[in-house]
Amino acid sequence: MSEKLIETIITKNDFKAAFDNLGVKSTDACMVHTAMSKFQYLPGGPKTIVRALEETLSVGTLMMPSQVSTNCDPTTWEYPPVRQDLIQVVRDNMPPYDPRTSATEGLGITPEYFRNLPDVVRSTHPYLPVAIWGKNAAEIAARQPLNLPYGINSPLDYLYKNDGKIIFLGTDYETCTMLHYAESTIHRKTETCSAATSIDQDGKTIWTNYQNIDLDSYDDFNELGEAFEKEFPNEVKAQKLGQGIIKVINSKPLIDFARQWFNKKDHQFGNAVD
């Protein structure tokens, strides 16, 4: 049985031409989300994507989410849950977050490739770090707060305040980390979370508490994105490349729209702090 024939090849220059056509400038700050498989075959894989982005944003800033999704309280795990008598075993043995070695989880191979590059800086939040390259990368990474890690002073805050862009490479609004910035800046109720941060003298993991919002309140990011594009079609540009779709979205109007969207729902469902 033969494998399916490769019929579409996307190169670095194809991506660069698409970015130029979609209005991405060398000085832009961009948060990028990737689904490499949507473009069928890229010689060089994630390296091709990252090189195209870095060459396009030659004097700008490139960010990708770099979360460590297992570095959270095992009592909250659902897929799968942890048997009750094993929860403390997980807590005592969870490796603490290390920005140099903790793998990016659940986001595909491109963000993990990107965060490993020597000129990429990763922020210090133990659960929701962001990998950053280019202009002001070290400063942006250092400012991310422990509490409300996607809120004020976060990398997302930098993106918003600098008229940044969001780039979907084969993905959709469901992957849009930037929307968590809107949720984090509308006075939503917070909850206590925890993450593994260090090791004690007996070799057991130390967990640190912090405050964050519920990042999965409504599961409506695609619905929000569809409504935003209908109301503000000029704030989004899209282009088909091979079998994939590239979208470039202006972050500030999206966030302003999303704040109103989430604020209405938070008051409707009792999640707002008045």
What descriptive keywords fit this protein?
274 residues; 9 helices; two-stranded antiparallel sheet; 31% helix; alpha+beta; 7-stranded mixed sheet
Main sheet properties? 7 strands, mixed
What gap, in angstroms, lies between the N and C termini? 63 Å
What structural class is derived from the secondary structure elements?
alpha+beta
In percent, how helical is the residue content? 25-40%
- Shape, principal axes of CA atoms: globular
Tell me what the structure shows.
It is a single chain. The protein is of the alpha+beta class. 31% of the residues lie in helices and 20% in strands.
Please outline the helices and strands.
Layout: H1 12-21, E1 29-34, H2 46-56, E2 61-65, H3 87-93, H4 109-115, E3 121-122, E4 130-134, H5 137-143, H6 155-161, E5 165-169, H7 179-184, E6 190-199, E7 205-213, H8 221-231, E8 236-241, E9 244-250, H9 251-269
Parallel strand pairs: 1-2, 1-5
Antiparallel strand pairs: 2-4, 3-4, 5-9, 6-7, 8-9
In short:
The chain has nine helices and nine strands. With 274 residues, the chain is α+β, with helices and mostly antiparallel strands. The model has no long low-confidence stretch (mean pLDDT 95).
